[in-house]
Amino acid sequence: MCTTQGATPIRLKRRPIAQSIENLDQLMNLEKGRMSRDLFWDRDIYEQELERIFARCWLFVAHESQIPKAGDYVSTYMGEDNVLIVRQKDGSVKGFLNTCPHRGNKVCFADLGNARQFVCNYHGWAFGIDGGLKGMAASETYEAAGIDKSEHGLHPVAQIDSYRGLIFATLDPDAPSLAEYLGDMRYYLDAIFDMDEGGTEFIGGCVKSVIQCNWKYASENFVGDILHALWTHDSGAKAMVGGPVAEVHKTPEQSYHVNFNGHGWEFNQDIVGNCATLGEKELLKYLYVLQPKVAERLGDLRSKMIGAISSCTLFPNTSFLPGQNTFRTWHPRGPGQIELHTWTFVNKNAPQEIKDKWRKGTMMTFSPSGVFEMDDGENWEYSTRSNAGFVTRQQDLYLGLGHDTRVEDTDLPGNVFQGQINEANQRAFYQRWLDLMKSESWKNVPQRDVPKMKEGV
Amino acid sequence: MNAKTALPEIGVDAETQRRVEQFLYREARLLDNERWDDWLALMAEDIHYWMPTMENRRRADKNGTYAVDRGALYNDNLVDLTRRVTRFKQPTAWAEDPATRHAHVVAGIEVYQGEAPGEFIVHSTFVNYRSRVEKDNDLLVGRREDVLRADGDGFRLARRKIIITQSVLMAKNLNTFL
Predict the structure, then answer these.
(1) What is the model's pTM?
(2) CA distance A371 to A376
(3) For domain A183-444, is the CATH number 3.90.380.10?
(4) Shortest Cα distance from B76 to chain A (angstroms)?
(5) Which domains does chain B have, with CATH numbers?
(6) Predicted pLDDT at B1
(7) Residues of B in contact with A205 (CB under 8 A)
(8) What residue segments make up the domains of chain A, in order of their start?
(9) Measured distance CA(A135)–CA(A349) in Å, rounded
(10) B83 touches chain A (CB under 8 A)
(11) pLDDT digits (tens, 9 = 90+) for B21-57
């Protein structure tokens, strides 16, 4: 289990908040479903995103199962900041910037592994797995200079916590708790990450690739855009199941958009729709057998989400697909590039052959060589690159599907909209983006969404 | 980077070496020309076509750079390969239209006797360059370890392991075979 680290880490210095870009409101008119292309191109906007989105939000950093033993670590990114996420001797998890406080070099060049300490290659500064500076080569020269080692540990993340096996961290000590940040989205997260009593695990390592697109194109796609599948992924569906993508726009009564704090989930209640695209009957059988047990555990609605046609983005840049079981983070690399890290998640208690089929299924569908993802990358790259044109960039984009679909009289948590063919979640995503970009600190971020779930649940 | 090679390296006669080289050069040409069905016809029924992803691990880490149960861009049997070919052939495979221009360059071909009679272990290096529309150019360089099986006058590919140099694939997709 994770524990929150000290609320105010020593030496956490922040440069004064950059002057906010003026007139950010003019970038979008969400009521009318219009938005500017500058969001996907402008360098100044990107730099402000690094500060006000990525150095502020809770970001996914690891799954508990990736670092089971003391000293186990993964190297990942929070925005463009490289961090090490390390299991401690007491079972808690800590996170540090992967940079030596002496002269700035990386202290760990491996993607993952188990360490007793991290030693910088430059001058041999050695750090314990708790981030503390233990010693260095020729330590007597530093002692002669009067160094206080306790002041020169690896720089910790501000807060770290986990939910249902997913570990998140934030670089902002003023960020609300993870529970508050995820809010009502936790209700839906349970449908996937708590459908089975053993919880989930990541298997099969991490597949990494680069797409020349703005990070928000990827996030907005998973936050609510099932519509593209019908058109973009026709070839992939024919390859995997021999027929076209399901026409979910014809049955809006059984599907939803839900969002909270900019996180969004579009979903059907067809139990296995996403999973079916993997072309593995055994996986469908597994889900159908599991579904009644999930219904007992989490109720009918969530039991029908376990492998359904659906997708989710946790604001800002982590997404997953139930049923296909791909989990991914879109790390920003400038306004026109992302580094995509993908994993396969499975129920820990699933039989090994079921896990193996999911591992192959994610590779066949949603990996750089996958028959679905193959066509996504090109769409996002050219949605980004076309904005190089000065006049092109002045042309608004449309994001207006599903006005007047809000469901008011419902017990479902979050903001609920009827029909998964919708752009309500995308609008909520960009509203949250705008709120954060305009706010000088967390205190100024408007709390638009009223949680139905209690924080501690 | 290379996994264990259990078998002793017993060479083959010049004519077998020439025929294997010819097989691999022809295979490269079929892929350059997107002759997907002809390429599939080179596969044995029990083909294992494997391209693991590379992990940066310290040398002391016994888990190694890659493993069969870890990340992969290909970890395919014949059904999987056929599915991929089915996508390539769809008129709605948008990222294939206009067509990608491929160059599969194969070099450094070494041929040794395989485990079973009529099987050969073949090492080769490759350069793959793909160009799409105006300026999408993707370069992959790597090494392959194949098992070819004699089949009539020719061979079938029974096993292929593809090791690339990149740990982060520097491309939006991998729309070819290697």
Answers:
(1) 0.95
(2) 10
(3) yes
(4) 8
(5) 14-164 (3.10.450.50)
(6) 40
(7) 53, 55, 70-71
(8) 58-171, 183-444
(9) 43
(10) yes
(11) 999 999 999 999 999 999 999 999 999 999 999 999 9
